[in-house]
Amino acid sequence: MSTVAFAAIAILTLAAALAAATLQKLMHAALSFAVMFVGISAFFFLLGAEFIGLVQIFVYIGAVAVLIVFTILLTRHDAEKVRGFNWSGVIVAVAVFAGLGWAISKTKSLSIVPQQIQPVTVQRIGELLMTNYVWPLLCVGVLLTVALIGALILVMEEKS
Amino acid sequence: MNSWITTNVWLIPAAPILAALLILALGKAARRQGAAYAVIGQLVALTMSIFAFVPTLHSHGFRSVQNFTWFTFGEQTLRIGFVLDPLAAAMLVMISLVGLCIFIFSVGYMAEDKNFSRFFAYLSFFSGAMLGVVIANSLVLLFVFWELVGLASYLLIGFWIERPSAAAAAKKAFITMRIGDMGFFLGILWLYHRSGTLLFYDGGQGCLENVGLLTLGASATFIALLIFCGAVGKSGQFPLHVWLPDAMEGPTPVSALIHAATMVAAGVFLVARVYPIFLVGAINGVTPSLTVVVWIGVVTGLMAALIAVAQFDIKRILAYSTVSQLGLMMVSLGVGGVAAGIMHLLAHGFFKALLFLGAGSVIHGCHHEQDIRKMGGLCRLMPVTFSTYAIGMMALSGVPFFFSGGWTKEEILHATAQWPRSHMPYYLMLVGVFLTALYMTRQIIFVFFGNRRAASEHAHESPSVMTLPLIVLAVCAILFSVVLTPAWRWLENYLTGHPARFDPHLLIQPMIIVSLALVGAGASLGIWMYRRAAGSDPIQQVQPALFRFLENKMWIDEIYDRTVIALAAIAARFSDWMDRYVWDGLVRGVGAIGHFFARLTSDADERVINAGVDEGTVGAHGFGRLMSRRHSGQIQTYLGALALGMLALVLLYAWLG
Amino acid sequence: MPTLSILLVVSAALFCIGLLAALSRRHAIFILIGIEMMLAAANLNFIAFWRFAPQPAQPTGVMVAIFAIAIAAAEAAVGLAMVIAVYRHFRTTNVDQLDHLKG
Amino acid sequence: MLSGRAPDWVIQAASSLLNIVALLGVFLTLFALISVLERKILGRMQNRYGPNRVGPFGLFQPVADGIKMLIKEDIVPARADKIVHFLAPVLIAATAILSLGVIPYGRNMTPFIIDGGILFFFAVGSTTELAVFMAGWGSNNKFSMLGAMRAIAQMISYELPLIITVLPVVMIVGSLNPDKIVAGQSNYSLGVVPHWFVFTPWGAVAFVLFFVSGLVESNRTPFDVPEGESEIVAGHMTEYSGFKYATFFMAEYIGMFAISGLGVTLFLGGWHAPIHFLEFIPSYVWFFVKLSILLFVYIWLRGTLPRTRVDQIMNFAWKFMLPMAFTCVIAAAVWHYIGRGLRGWLWSLAVIAVVYFTLSILLDSRRKFAPRTYRFAE
Known about the structure:
Low-confidence stretches of chain C: none
Number of strands of chain B: 2
Helix content of chain B: over 70%
Order of helices and strands of chain B: HHHEEHHHHHHHHHHHHHHHHHHHHHHHHH
Radius of gyration of chain B: 31 Å
Shape of chain B: globular
Strand content of chain C: under 5%
Oligomer: heterotetramer
Structural class of chain C: mainly alpha
Largest sheet of chain C: none
CATH class of chain C: Mainly Alpha
Mean pLDDT of chain C: 84
Distance between the termini of chain C: 51 Å
Strand order of the largest sheet of chain B: 1-2
């Protein structure tokens, strides 16, 4: 069951990713991008990290995808005009993939199957966030605030 | 309430600092509010200081310590803390009370200044930093506040930044103090290296407690001297005293705050605070480091008193008298009279603030004229200022029985006389006492008696917002003597932690006759010499060379100009020369070599391989184009290069592992 | 359940597709999409390594993934704001034309 | 039976299917019922009869409507993005139904038991925005696009207070699991006063804020600006007809059910009875009673309030709802740390009151919501 599920999710994710990277229409690419994140969340569910999966959907589909779509809309005059494809990028990407794949296949210690695991509960994550990771949490809070303000300032109308 | 303040003693400096931030936030327009916040902040600090003072009365040798960890790096933790003991409590009350008087005085004195609120922000900031110095229980925390005090004094001395002399004075003060602070900092580092802690008191583990002191050993002398460097800089001791008289460029309340009550006292306070380090390895109460302290104090005290005799600027006379008095305190600390030194410090805080504010009142009344030769006959015009000023003058001169300065000076002389190593400091100090009486009499005669001169024609008494602090301080200067008398050594016992007893027989001691005679002699000589002086100085007429020597502050500034500063200038010029000729020459030489080769190549190019030139340029051009295309300014190109670099890294790791 | 190496290959593929999007497309938004994909691939690796670690394991991988998501969100917000700002200024989102850094 | 022999995944699949079928059956029926009831109730409020021609009391009206919708022509604009245009209603309905899955309808009646159920609800719910956008963009129509933009703007703005008002409940219970949240409200004082969160000051305020945000999220009156027919035809649904339109319509209602169900779960004690001895009545009855009351309020509001203006909605969200939502979090913390007793009750009430009055003074509603002045139209 889970091998089948894994294969299905992997195919869905990679296909969506490829679509997001190559589709001509920007809007379609953005929507494929959202689908890809559903696939990644499914991976997370499969791997026992429910919370991360939900957060992933929440953040990426609820926020980032909408943001991207908005940006496309705000730069729409350009969205249909800017086309074209840089084939040298394909070569680089394929080369990187080949290198990574070779490195992974060469490493013997990676061909292991997972053991049984207690799924990590939300409560445990909350406890960790409030104890061991409280400083990173605060830093991320500051970062998000700064990003919010920074983004607002960036998109403010330029005074001419 | 009591225990509440002893555990939260940090609130005392926090109040003025908060006020300072608030005033700065309010901005320039909020003049009235700014002053109100500053005064309220100081009032809160005073109230809390008094609350903090109360529990230290209940038990003798009271000490409350609050330590906490500031940060941890590796195995080491840096801990800082606050301490409340009689020394700190007495200083807190004195600083906040005198500070409050000065704040209120400033409301009147600075009323017309355009940067009124900024002034109060600085004042509050200064006051908070100074209160912080007093309650710090760690050398590093003390150093932080110490530097904040330095910064605040820089800002305040240079408050009238548009005057070049004020800016120069501020810079001078800052740099001179930095020289001392460099030594102080080295001392801190050395102390930390030896004892591993910078806390003063830490339940027996602090650097001033037995365990800490034992680890110091022979290096204690050097550590003590290095720390003393900081005190020398801040307290204006010889040879770093030069900034203090120049700092009179600041507004008069600033002079009062910095040079009377608080900042210059910080040096004395510092020595008293780390006194156990000075005492390590003491034989009969004498150590090499303390001997240095004594002689520095003696030299400073005498030299400043001599210079003060020949000054004409009303504030400069007071400044030199401050330097002289600080020398006296240092002597007291050096010979073992810690309590006497601190008592004199507290008493001096009151009467010197009184004198400075009185001088401020005079300057205000004389329309910002500071030359005493142009004043005169003010005693009728400014009765309140005159009477309070006279009280301050008598306290400073050391008139016994009624004035606080008299008793404390007596204590110091007493302690100095008993110093086992030499009697010389005692005799020199007596000369200093005599000179003090002389120059104060001179000043008061010039300013308040005789005929009215240019500046005093239209003088007027200051408003009550300025005279009220004067009266308060004058009352303090007199009443303070009650707790200082030898018959009832309440303050001394409070500071040293013994119960006080009342013994009227000790009221009159033989040594008091000596100082009474000296003060009387000084004052009489002053009256005799200056009574007919009308705008000129009799010494100047009799001994012009000596007078010029003193008037020009013994040419110490000039000596510094010729030596230290000249040396720095030479070093700078040398560096400039090195840069200009040696390094530049090297570069030019390399350039010339390159040039030579270039010429060679060009010749070869032109003459030898003229045929291959076309081919070569085409190739070079092509390569340049290729490289230039790599640097296309396009993000994707860079990203691709990044990815390839990462790929190379991955392959390298996979290949190695 | 598949082995770790297969999972890693999938995430490597995802990463490379992200790289492809970032390198090959002319529109600035694609670069952002590509970067987000690469971050997601990295997240997948974190979770995978956590899942395949000897048990019981500290959920460090999960925590890192949480922070990575938060930071990626911030990055997306600022990045898209920059795209809009750049569009307003240069009237284009074609990265080929944005070469003011050209040496 | 065979269950002992059947492989695990068969059982899983079967139970999931059963859940889904039950959910769909119940809520589609409820949708049909509510759609006709709404019209009848609105009719009452407007002093007229509602639908009363089809079947007894007009109860078969939805059947007739359904048939009409099904057989209507499905128009797709020529310039539309066909795929996106088609996917939008599918996605919106799917997410709406999915979010129903984590709500506990009764004792042991939670379809999908997920540790982070509340998070799941919002994660899935946030997808709605994308679907709305797809509808607006895919139609290639100015009104659709404007409607979608309005909808997304207000949904994003109100998602923040919606989620933040849930936080205090999650904080107090210490779990994102809806079952545990219901269990956290299962006690009674004296057997008559249930420990529902709505009976605490922070809970009451959070519930009101939650309800208002829910109104916005489901685009109901008075916040139905995105489909305000007097301004932009029908918003993002302009170019939809036939069954696709019906799907949108259904998704909207199901979203309303879901948000009301979550409100019942979070604040109104879930499936618990209001009085202890009434617990013998089946738990799902209580749930649906509470749900029906909330739905009635929705309809009631629709019949009562006029539509708000776009800028008013946005101002209200950012300047009032958001600060108040944060206040709820703080008030809940105060309530918890003072000991969850009467003292905590009063203190948290004080916190809320202070913030409320401060906000009202700062916002000075008289000035902000004064009659509109026209600069050009006079």
